[in-house]
What we know:
LolB; Rossmann fold; alpha/beta; Uncharacterised_CoxE; VWA domain containing CoxE-like protein; vWFA_dom_sf
Amino acid sequence: MSDSDLQRWRLILGSSAEKHTGGLSGDAAGRDQALSWLYGRDPELAKRGIRGDGGGAGKEGGDGPSALTTVDWLDSVHRLFPKETIERLQRDAVERFEILDIVTDPTVLERVEPSPSLLSAVLRTKHLMNPDVLALARKIVEKVIRDLMEKLRTEVRQSFTGTRARRPSRFKQARNFDFRSTIRANLGHYQPEERRISIEQPRFFSRTQRSLDQWQLILLADQSGSMAGSVIHTAVTAACLWGLPGLKTHLIAFDTSVVDLTDDVTDPVELLMKVQLGGGTDIAKAVQYGAGVVENPRRTIVALITDFYEGGDEGQLIRSVRKLVEQGTVVLGLAALDEDAQPDYNRDTAQRLANVGAHVGAMTPGELANFVAERIGR
Length: 378
């Protein structure tokens, strides 16, 4: 086994393996120090009889290297790890170990790698920031939102450009290329010696243009702390849907109060800087407000984005949703609206809403855009 393999196993197994693998040197030693600074804080280590080294807390005296500061640690991980690992380390630092100076200390913010997890941390801690730090944090918000907008705009555009019909088309456009039909039509041109098919008759789908009547999309976003990721993606989704023909979009945030943010939809950065994560939750109050915004019940989608942990009147919530459904409104109960769509939610309340006619589940922003496009194009 080579020295590099031994050092890799030492990094995986920890310091207790050194008698078999030998010590670390160079970049491997730096990686070990950076990982120990962060994950040495894990209280589970003490339960397993392993001494943690995180941040110098409880560290025994000796002649080893001095404890890292957060700035030193960030410099190290940016130098020693690939980008995807950096983002994971930063996310664990903020979310798992609550090292908040990553998003409240200006010298740290200048070095941090913008990512959705750090954006969530900024939204949770922006009330702790002085104006100078807040200005730096806003740059993180702007960078992450710009990246999310660019990605989602493409998905929204695809959803709203018409559905593919099964009829063939004479118009040759790459986005309408019919792969299966093309293969079937050209099997006779298969060249065994080259193991390829010569395409002489490409086939394409036709697209049917959606007939768009005026619809409303009312997004009700729970801004409790656990819903940070969904709040971010709701703001970006609303901005991408804003101004589409045939669709009038509203965005309403709530905890125990209700705030109509529709006027800020076109600027998701400004909108998110106004969001106050945390606090209680009154879902019933938000649904009642949303019901008051409905103009044409049979041309309205109400998307309730929440973890369904109701702090208000659950009976009133069920009655309000039932009334919306009975009048012909489409009600979506989304336990998550983000890229992962893996929610943690109150299943009992969600089931009660499903029982009165709500569509309950989790979606990515692209899936929500496609759902809306399919509904209003009928």
